[in-house]
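[step 3/7] inverse_fold.run input=structure_tokens len=297
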């Protein structure tokens, strides 16, 4: 019997998240252990941005180190993923079916927005990975529509993982890295607004976040790191439950919240045996979080 997968939105943080995954990394790894084994993973990263939706067909996608000035050990890390041409073609077909243009890229690898969370969640690299690009010029509405095209894949045991961050302001990240400081108020205000709108299933408000959300332009001077959330929201369709399975702030300004959009079938994963993390201590911020999930098959 084919399993239905949830749709996930996960953080990838700064590249050093790969070296110091902390509580957010532990939450991603624990969540992955509760999932039915997927046929393939469709990974949508904020760092692959193209004019039209593009699907990666590489048989062995390279690990892309698309960052500079970080510790040398980071550049030695690899994620030995494999692709799957047949699964990639199904992703192309799903996008074509809703009338969107789509192209294939035979060589594109995995940028750090893709391989860092995958390395934490699927360390054995034993599930085929299909990268899919975002189109930042289309904004949230285009990302949501792209996600809707992917919705049938979740019912066919494809795991859709969208990787971004709920807040992403590089200028503030660099400023506090140099000078230290406190978490700006907009980080919590914007993160709480997103959580509230998701809980209310307010798709209209979420699509209009730049006008409605407090601190929206500070939280996202540009859209690209929030767009994966809209892909996940579209791919989820009408989920039975939206579960924020991690909440925390890294480096003062990067919200590391993670969400699972759970269909009816995935609701059976939850049990009365919760897994818990340690409190998230991110500078002066401390958040205790809890998620109920199947502790193992």
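[step 3/7] decode complete -> sequence:
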């Amino acid at each position: 019997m084919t399993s239905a997968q949830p749709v996930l939105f996960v953080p990838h943080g700064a590249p050093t998240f790969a070296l110091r995954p902390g509580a957010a990394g532990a939450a991603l790894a624990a969540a992955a252990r509760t999932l039915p084994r997927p046929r393939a993973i469709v990974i949508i990263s904020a760092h692959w941005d193209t004019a039209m939706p593009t699907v990666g067909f590489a048989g062995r996608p390279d690990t892309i180190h698309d960052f500079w000035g970080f510790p040398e050990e980071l550049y030695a890390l690899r994620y030995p993923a494999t692709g799957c041409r047949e699964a990639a073609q199904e992703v192309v077909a799903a996008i074509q079916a809703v009338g969107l243009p789509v192209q294939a890229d035979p060589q594109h690898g995995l940028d750090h927005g893709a391989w860092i969370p995958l390395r934490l969640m699927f360390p054995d690299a034993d599930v085929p990975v299909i990268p899919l690009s975002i189109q930042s010029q289309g904004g949230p509405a285009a990302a949501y529509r792209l996600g809707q095209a992917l919705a049938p894949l979740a019912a066919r045991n494809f795991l859709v993982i969208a990787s971004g961050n709920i807040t992403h302001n590089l200028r503030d990240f660099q400023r506090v890295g140099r000078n230290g400081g406190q978490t700006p108020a907009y980080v919590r205000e914007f993160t709480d607004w997103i959580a509230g709108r998701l809980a209310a299933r307010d798709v209209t408000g979420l699509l209009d976040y730049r006008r409605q959300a407090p601190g929206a332009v500070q939280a996202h001077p540009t859209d690209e790191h929030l767009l994966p959330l809209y892909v996940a929201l579209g791919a989820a369709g009408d989920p039975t439950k939206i579960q924020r399975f991690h909440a925390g702030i890294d480096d003062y300004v990067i919200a590391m919240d993670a969400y699972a959009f759970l269909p009816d079938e995935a609701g059976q994963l939850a049990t009365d045996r919760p897994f818990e993390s340690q409190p998230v201590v991110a500078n002066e911020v401390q958040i205790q979080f809890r998620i109920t999930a199947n502790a193992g098959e």
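[step 4/7] annotate
The longest strand covers residues 40-49.
The chain has eleven helices and 14 strands.
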